[in-house]
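Sharing a chain and its predicted structure for anyone who wants a worked example. Both blocks are below, sequence first, tokens second.
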Amino acid sequence: MKKVLGTQLIVELYGCDPETLTNRDYVEKTLQEATVKSHAHSIGSFFHQFQPHGVSGVIIIEESHYTIHTWPEHGYAAVDLFYCSNEVDVEKALDVLEEYFKPEKITLFELKRGVIPEKKKYEIPARVENKSQVALA
């Protein structure tokens, strides 16, 4: 079995209400709520309101980070939920994003980060002719 240091969930929200994606306070509240509900632990955040519209923000969590970038003119938000703990319930964060932004469509991409191969004591060749071919690693 391979060890994974973290999981990065890339979330694309399409068809969102542009008003929710324009309001910095609303976007921040949503990501904060997603953090709390998913059992992640916030240690700091920063959100910026762009002119004429759009918001970018990050919440640094003990387990890594949650980020968001919005394009209200397209009803689109790009969210990155990166966490390094089995205690984080990322599905709860997704529920919050869906509840607050009400997207018509959500696309998810999951990346396993820091995949570390297991150290094996024995390495067995694909085809063993006899036991003398089994080598210690």
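Comments welcome. The chain has a mean pLDDT of 90.
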